[in-house]
Amino acid sequence: MNARTRWSSGVAGVAVAVLSMSALAACGSADDSGDGGTTTLTMTVWGGDVDKKSYQERVDMLEEAHPDIKVDLQLIPSEQYEQKVQTMIAGGNGPDIMQVAEGVNVYSSKNQILPLDEYVSKSGLDLEERFGPTGTLYSYQDKVYAIPDRSGAMIVYYNKDLFDAAGVDYPTADWTQEDAQAAMEKLTVPGKQWGYGGAGWWAQWWSFAYQNGGQIIDDAGAPTVNTPEVVDALQWANDLTFKDHVVPTAAEYADMGPDMGGDPAFAAQKVAMNTTGFWAIGGLLESDFDWDIAPMWQGEEQAVSAFGSGLAISRDSEHPDKAFEAIDYLTDADAQQVIIDNAQDVPANVQVQQSDAFLEPKWATKDINMGAFADSSEFVFTSPLIPEWNEMQAAFDDNLGTFWNEGGDAKTQLDAIQTKLESIVGQG
Amino acid sequence: MAADLGAVLGAARAQGSRRTGGRRAARLPRPKLSRRGRTEALFFWLFISPWLVGFVGFLLGPMIASVYISLTEWDSFTPPVFVGLDNYVQALTGDPVFWKALWNTFYYAAISVPLGLAVGLWLANLLNKRVRGRKFFRTMIYLPTLVPLVATAMVFKMVLAPSGPLNDLLGVLGVQGPNWLLDPLWVKPALVVLSAWGAGSATVLLLSAMNGIPREFYEAAEIDGAGPFRQFWSITFPQITPIIFFNLIMGLIGAFQIFSQVYILTQGGPDNASQMMVPLLFDQAFGFYHFGYASAVAWLLFVVIIGFTALAFRTSRRWVFYETEVR
To answer: How far apart are CA A168 and CA A148, in angstroms?
Structure first.
């Protein structure tokens, strides 16, 4: 390899991807339908071992209930998922069923996945009844593009031992931001223990912004991040670290170990409260301290973010009817229960969320207030899932790095972000 | 690696001799190939074809395609829209992040490449001495190169922590260490520190070059009364300049294309203080679906790299010494 080829191997990286796309295109459109009346659907999902197990079990159930459907399940590691699916679609060989999340409208805005309203009404599925307010979360321009599959609100994890020792009442949904801060202050032992894990992640501080009545993107689609409501929320989240010292600083986290943050710090009893998703439960079951979960506290209003994923049908699918049939089955109660039985996530199906299987999961070795998820789902705010989601996140990251690491003025940063977002959203 | 070396040296030599012989030879009529010549030519094409096919199919083709893509706006789903030079104009005039990333990449290359060479040279010179346990030290110094980058990066996250081992060490010397990866001012030096970790690969090449220097030179120098420093600068250094030159070129290219370290350690943060060119184009393409813009950035990076490589070759005539070339 001489200097020149070495150079081009890097430069042409993007181009190589392009070439492989066209190569894929050439071999796409091959066998999709099997013989004997069965239809083979490809389905792409992301995740690790527990996800693989859950999805496979659900697919097995589906194949049993619908003998005419076979599913070729492809599990892709999370960090490669977008790139992989993007390549498949660009090659004209998109999966029949694909898992989507916040990035859903990258696909819907470019007509790469099918609007599902027709299929929904044809099948008689009532999204509102099955999923509650998240039913139409994955919509773009008033059309539904994905059916919710997994959906859990962010919840408050709290360390009962530390709360008891400090003589603080356990958190409830009735707590205000002031109550939360008062508790954090009592739970902090300078340099050793902190009241709260911090709110540097969008899901966390955006919740405060919506609690204040603010919005990141308004209903008309324009960014509104430098409004007083959002500024106050961000400043509060930052002050908890740098003014009130009830949250570890980035430097203090870095000293605890590599990739340290609220979740591992809570497990290590360094922080008494942490706000995160369902996924922390599995690891905490093995911990040797007492903890529980509660719905998020409130501000002017109740609001909390939720994360999850939905199932969509790509435009390349040759059997959209069958694909929808499969999605319908996978999001119905029986198949959804597998999600909680495997401690994988919160199923989007509210009927399952309220079932005993969810409220008293068979794997729980202690009492957990699982009702917190169903309680939260009433005040989950609708995340602004704009097509430029990734760029929007980058705009926040690019302007809040130093702010989170060293403190600063929220208004200044949000003014800069507002300008950037206006140019991003303006591009269309 | 050996093939790389030969290729670069060959290129350097070809450039040196082109001026004298090359042009005259071109004017001569092409001699007819003998039967044996034809067979040899056939075999030449036969044996080169795997590389040629690979090059045309996987490098040249995509490169040409990326020139076109860089002139379009393309999200990889819908057909590309031709926009002329808009992407280049946008990068050069409308995108502060591009300039920041370019500056960061310059900063990184300007420090990490000379530093890597100096450290590599120093280590090679030490290892070239007849010390006890020489083989052991050689192994130890090359070892970091064999550790996967992801593992190295994870370790460095701990080493570079605000109260981590590195800052503890600085504390012993009475220096208050910075928050390496969290501070916009120090995040690039932190990446440079990580790059010095990989100096072992240069060391191995330099060391083997040093071993190839005839002993008689040193004996003669010793008789003339030259000390170790004098010997190094007058014998060792000139003799290994081709290898230093090779390491310089490879180091430059590698530094301009830094990706994994940034991707794993900092994701370009804080506030783009460690954003580099290749991570930038990766984000633009695979994160934001701006393939046209990413391709334009790639070509701008190409111009920068080719510029610096050409500069290095140009100056090389002044300081790179080839024994086989008499001047």
So the answer is: 37
